Amino acid sequence: MPSCLVARHHVYRTIISPRDLSIQLSVLHNAKKSRLFVTGYRRNPSRCTRACSSSAQTSKDSPGSKAYSSKREVLAPLDKISAFLPRALPGSTTDGGIQSSQLWSELLSEVDAELCSPSGVHQSARVVVCGTDKWAGSYELITALLENPFTTDDAYSDILRNRWKNQSAYLTIDHRSSTSLINDSLAIPAPWLQQYPFPIQLTEIPFLSSHPSLPKTLLKGDVLILLFNPLTTPLPTLISNAQHILQRQNTILVLTASSASGHALDYISKELAAANCTPGKIISVDPIRALQAVSALKSDPSSPAVIQKYQDNFMGSRISLLGDVLAGMFELKDSSRTSSSLLLTIRTRSALTQMRSALYAGARSVSQARAAIDRVFIGASELQSQVEEVRARTDREVLVESGIDEALLRGLKEMKALLESLTWLKMIWRVDEIDSLVSSALDRRWCRELENQLILQTGRLTSTQASLTSSTFSQLAKLASPSSSPAFHSPILDNHLRQLTHSPTYALTPDALTRPIQVRRSQITKYTTIRLHRDAQNTVLGAFGGMFGGAGVGWWLAFGENALSIGAGSEAGTALGAGALVAVASIRWAVGKWERAKKKWVEDADRVGEGLKRDLKVTLERAIEKNVAVVPIAAYVGLRELAGKQQEEIDLIRDDLVSMQGDVEALETTRPS
User: Fold this and answer.
1) Is the N-terminal amide bond of 491 cis, ω within 30° of 0?
2) Rounded to an integer, what distance in angstroms lies between the CA atom of residue 104 and that of residue 306?
3) pLDDT value at position 119?
4) How confident is the model at residue 96 (pLDDT cuts 50, 70, 90)?
């Protein structure tokens, strides 16, 4: 014990010796500002007593009363946000819970309990220290802050430096009169924990991903010190892994690289601001050098060389700056305020920070939901584009490349040649076979090649149908993939689409495109050809009737007893000529009627051909809509309907979110300091 006092006296004497006064006064000044931990500085009990006694005499306009009023103002939006979060956030997530309504509901419930509890229940300010990786220096920083080179307790340094021997997740460090490590709690009489008007409770986390339950522990602190080594963690990785932390005003980002300069801090600040990350403070500290300084002093506290080395390393580590930043975070400018009032202010500020972070998580979730809805609309548009591409391609392949016009022209030409070969003289011998003769030729020659070509195109459309269906389900699987955060999946829509693929009308039959040809051919057979057959019979009857009538007229003129009778046996040639004239006229009439009937048949067949082209176009469109693209069409219609409904819900949630963010900003603006 005496040697320790002598060593401590020697340290003080060395620091204020005239030999190094220009340097040592600066060190001592910085040490006093930060309540230098190696000198065993403790907060003044008399000061605390006076502050507590004076707080009992404060008026209703005192800072404590203002803090209490601010606490009451915070509770109303706190309850509102707690009820709102299940609408904006999923119940559980795969990102460690940051976007989970359960996490934020638990945090806000704890905040509400703390604000509603008596002021004496929570007597410590909570500081969480975490590294971005295991090389960030969180262990060195905590050890340098809590180490006491002048302690006579041999277990102090041993327990402090070996505290992580059997730990895995995190460690809670509180000030106690004796040193002990039980489970995940370290009790230690470290002066640094008592340097402010209220005790400090440290929570040490080795690095961000050391345990899956850490998000809640990270976010519970009144102040979070995040250590970042840019040599081992790239800045984009930091932003990706800790964006939710870097957007909180109670976060202190500490660069632990020994060569970090002001330019590096400016660059990191700009990059973080560009990523919408604005931590409360960004500083540069070298915890390894600070620990080396403390370790050197602990090894030989009476050596002037060791003390000089300690001073150089301590100043070079810039660790005293951390104490100043923490004091600013705790708003310790007003020395007249009591510790309970300060803690209430810290709790109120932490509540506002938690509410802002919860709303940010909700805003991020809403943004992700909007992005998912946009992806759904994009996916629906891609499916529609594929369908439209198939429409355009099949119009060209089926209606143009199949040669419909040429097939109709060729078929009509062949039928016309057949009818032209069927002269009246040939027709009269087959007058009862005209319908069967023309119908048989119609079946063999009219659009038969076109029918075969359309059957071939139907097979190609079947392949296109399978491709579109596969693409549709691939698009739905892509939207429902866990990598698409949040995933978009509708079992009802998926079941409906699969029912369509198994419906009887889904498959394309060989006659799917040829039905119009069959219908139009039947139309020509049933109406136009039958009329031609009747006209043929009428002409034959008319011709023979005329011939017999001419013979009767001749006989009547030659032998009849009437005024026109020429006389018996007289001018028989004239009577014969008159009869022959009537017979020839009837034959001429019959030939003309037959030619007109054939011409009318050709004209009717040509009109039916024009109608066939329209029918084929309509049939193709119907086949695409009802068969080939029935699945993608139902998919993009269903996706747009579902996405539209979700978009309306998201818009309502966003409006409520904006309103609550305005309430929190108003509280932060009017919050007493």
Assistant:
1) no
2) 49
3) 61
4) low
Can you give the three-state secondary structure of 108-174, one letter per residue?
A: HHHHHHHHHCCCCCCCCEEEEEEECCCCCCHHHHHHHHHCCCCCCCHHHHHHHHCCCCCCCCCEEEE
Cα distance between residue 400 and residue 545, in whole Å = 51
| Average pLDDT score over residue span 570-595 | 76
Residue 487 φ then ψ, to 5°: -75, 150
Which amino acid, 47? R
Q: Are residues 485 and 430 in contact, defined by beta-carbon separation less than 8 angstroms? A: no
Q: Would you mind telling me the total number of residues written for the chain in this entry? A: 673
> Order of strands, edge to edge, in the sheet holding 251-255?
180-182, 185-188, 171-175, 200-205, 125-131, 223-228, 251-255, 281-284
223 three-state secondary structure: strand
Give dist(CA 318, CA 30) in Å, integer: 10
Burial of 49 by CB count in 10 Å (0-12 exposed, 13-18 middle, 19+ buried)? exposed
Inter-axis angle of helices 339-394 and 630-670, to 10 degrees? Answer: 160
Backbone angles phi, psi at 49, to 5 degrees: -65, -45
Report d(CA 256, CA 231) in Å as an integer. 9
Encoded tokens for 382? 């891609």
Q: Which residues contact 189 (CB under 8 A, 6 or more apart)?
A: 148, 151, 153, 156, 175, 176, 177, 178, 179
Tokens representing 176?
A: 């106690």
Residue appearing with tokens 């800045």: 235
Q: How far apart are CA 126 and CA 247, in angstroms?
A: 19
Cα(270)–Cα(276) distance, integer angstroms? 10
Residue 591 CB neighbours (<10 A): 16
Strands (E), 263-419: 281-284
Query: pTM of the prediction?
Result: 0.69
Rounded to the nearest 10 degrees, the angle between the axes of helix 235-246 and helix 262-274 is: 70
pLDDT in tens, 354-381: 899 899 888 988 888 898 899 899 999 9
CA nearest 131: which of 207, 26, 22?
207
Question: Which residues have C-beta within 8 Å of that of residue 608, sequence separation ≥ 6?
Answer: 520, 523, 524, 528
* Number of neighbouring beta carbons within 10 Å of residue 523: 16
- The tens digit of pLDDT for each residue in 506-521 reads 888 888 888 998 899 8
Owner of token pair 């609550």: 660
Per-residue pLDDT tens over the stretch 33-56: 333 333 333 333 333 333 333 333
Residue 143: both structure tokens together: 């050890």
